[in-house]
Design brief:
The chain is of the alpha/beta class and 510 residues long. It has a domain of 278 residues: 2-Layer Sandwich (Nucleotidyltransferase, domain 5). It has 19 helices and 25 strands. Strand 4 and strand 5 form a beta hairpin. The longest helix has 22 residues. The chain is globular, with a radius of gyration of 22 Å. It starts with a strand and ends in a 16-residue tail after the last helix. It binds adenosine-5'-diphosphate (ADP) and 5-O-phosphono-D-xylulose. The site of 5-O-phosphono-D-xylulose (5SP) has 16 residues, from helix 11. It comes from Marinobacter iranensis. Belongs to the FGGY kinase family. InterPro entries: ATPase_NBD, Carb_kinase_FGGY, Carb_kinase_FGGY_CS, FGGY_C, FGGY_Carb_Kinase, FGGY_N, Xylulokinase.
Length: 510
């Protein structure tokens, strides 16, 4: 048995898988609480991730009806970019600043300048620093919380921190490390010189975790932790990775030509590449993946976070919300939402706030507002999808994951807006599944077995044909004009270039 853990923004999920029979035996999740403040602050207490992990692990094992002593290895996936700075006792010196924290926008702008602008970032890191990456959070801590900064003994990402709590080891792997902003994504190595520009008082050799390969083990579960979880001795913890890298594994996106789109708190679209991808657009992040390839990715910040906000305004449950979205016509009778409730990464608008446009006494209905917020999050993803250029243009099918993918009406909107058919894997907790698959890969490797990640994915990732959703050519054509309205609003409110979007041709495998 293998366990996959995904520490997302809103919750930690745990899945137990049986690789022999290729199925999930049990799963569970526990929510996290967000510390929000003025100026875009978004933080979490790492201890809460651990409590959520314990709760979800216990429930998932109970649901699976297995003896935890039969678990061979655990893999951990985590929200990317969060800064977990620890003191010499392994205690956080400050709550973790998350990927969606925009309080550090000015620190990020200053760092980009110090590194020589976009060209300097590309040449040193293989990508352009963005607000949200770990680098500016460290710069912020140094400037705004000097007492906490002085106590830093090590720096981890969220999934590295869970690995540390499980094994006592401070390690990192290339996929998640790519999103720090002090890691060269082409050579897969820390950039100590860049780190020293951000944090000159800290020694990168001491504070940065040791890099390990994607198939390597972070360590074995500590005896006290094993006792608490009911595990046997020597349970391996694989390297783990960022949730998008684990989502790539959990959707079988470890070969060229596949595209995964996640409708989580964030929205992400990514494709596998065997080589580093140097995009001509700074918003495309040339991340490494966690299978020794690369994962060019775009990330928008307001997806289910935005839909949840509007849903809560009306006090709707998820089912009623979906009914409302379905009840309104494409374009929500003229309402356009720019859903940047907490700034945005793609397009690069860290200081933006949301706008509701085109409201009249006739169209301001619950249904139209619900539809407009889902459409707006999807338009943001179309904007990002187009930035992926050839990688996206050739896509005939998109693998859809994340909480929003559970909604049939949202699946149809994604297919219609992008003009590409979409399908969900049977196991939609793809990041947790990917982590469990990686754990099995790592375990087999440690036993000297010549296993391949691709064969494990083939066995464990299957697509749910009931969710296959083809674009409707007439609706795709209608959305062309509505998307143009969104782009015009983007230009008028935020000065984002109104470049004519590519005309989507409906694409599907049949
Ligand atoms: N049927 C649905 N329709 C719309 N949103 C949904 C649906 N099911 C779940 N969600 C939303 O998905 C979100 C959780 O998605 P998830 O991918 O688990 O997020 P994260 O990994 O960022 O914590 C929640 O905001 C939840 O409201
Ligand atoms: O910042 C990014 C990717 O660059 C986000 O995708 C985070 O990794 C958070 O993921 P979710 O919690 O939305 O799954």
């Amino acid at each position: 048995m293998y366990v996959g853990v995904d520490c997302g923004t809103q919750s930690t999920k745990v899945v137990v898988i049986d690789i022999e029979n290729g199925r999930i035996l049990g799963e569970s999740s526990r929510p996290h609480h967000l510390i929000e403040g003025a100026n875009g602050r978004r933080e979490q207490d790492p201890e809460e991730w651990m409590s959520a992990f314990f709760g979800a692990f216990t429930d998932a094992v109970t649901n699976a009806g297995i003896d935890p002593g039969t678990i061979r290895a655990i893999g951990v996936s985590g929200q990317q970019h969060g800064l977990v700075a620890l003191d010499a006792n392994g205690q956080p010196v400050h709550p973790a600043k998350l990927w969606c924290d925009t309080e550090t926008a000015k620190h990020n702008a200053a760092l980009v300048e110090q590194l020589g602008g976009e060209a300097g970032c590309l040449s040193k890191l293989g990508l352009v620093l963005q607000t949200g990456y770990t680098a500016s959070k460290l710069a912020w801590l140094r400037e705004e919380r000097p007492d906490a900064y002085r106590r830093i003994d090590s720096i981890l990402l969220p999934h590295d921190y869970l690995n540390f709590r499980l094994t006592g080891e401070r390690v990192a792997e290339a996929g998640d490390a790519s999103g720090t902003g002090y890691f060269d994504t082409r050579t897969r190595q820390w950039r100590n010189d860049v780190f020293s520009i951000i944090a000159p008082e800290l020694n990168p050799e001491q504070v940065l975790p040791r890099l390990i390969g994607s198939r390597d083990a972070a360590g074995t579960v500590l005896p006290a932790m094993a006792k608490q979880l009911g595990l046997g001795p020597g349970v391996l913890v694989s390297s783990g990775g960022g949730d998008n890298m684990m989502g790539a594994i959990g959707t079988g996106n470890i070969q060229p030509g596949r595209i995964t789109l996640s409708l989580g708190t964030s929205g992400t679209v990514y494709a596998f590449s065997r080589q580093p991808v140097l995009s001509d657009n700074a918003m495309v992040a040339n991340f490494c993946d966690s299978s020794d390839g690369w994962l060019p990715l775009i990330c928008t910040m307001n997806v289910t976070s935005a839909s949840t906000l509007v849903r809560n305004l009306f006090g709707l449950d998820l089912g009623t919300f979906s009914e409302c979205v379905a009840a309104a016509p494409p374009g929500a009778e003229g309402i356009t939402i720019l859903p940047f409730f907490n700034g945005e990464r793609v397009p690069m608008l860290p200081h933006a706030s949301a706008s509701f446009l085109g409201l009249t006494s006739l169209n301001t209905t619950q249904a139209n507002l619900c539809r407009a917020v889902v459409e707006s999050a999807t338009f943001g993803l179309r904007y990002g999808f187009e930035l992926l250029g050839d990688l996206a243009r050739d896509a005939h099918q998109i693998r859809l994951i994340g909480g929003g993918a559970r909604s049939a009406v949202w699946r149809q909107i994604v297919a219609d807006v992008l003009g590409v058919e979409v399908i969900c894997p049977h196991i939609t907790e793809a990041a947790a599944l990917g982590a469990a698959i990686q754990a099995a890969w790592c375990d087999q490797h440690s036993q000297g077995e010549e296993s391949s990640l691709a064969s494990l994915c083939e066995r464990l990732v299957s697509l749910d044909q009931d969710t296959l959703t083809r674009p409707d050519p007439a609706t795709t054509a209608t959305y062309q004009g509505i998307y143009q309205r969104y782009r015009t609003a983007l230009q008028q409110r935020h000065g984002v270039s109104p470049a004519e979007p590519a005309q989507p041709q409906t694409r599907s495998t049949t």
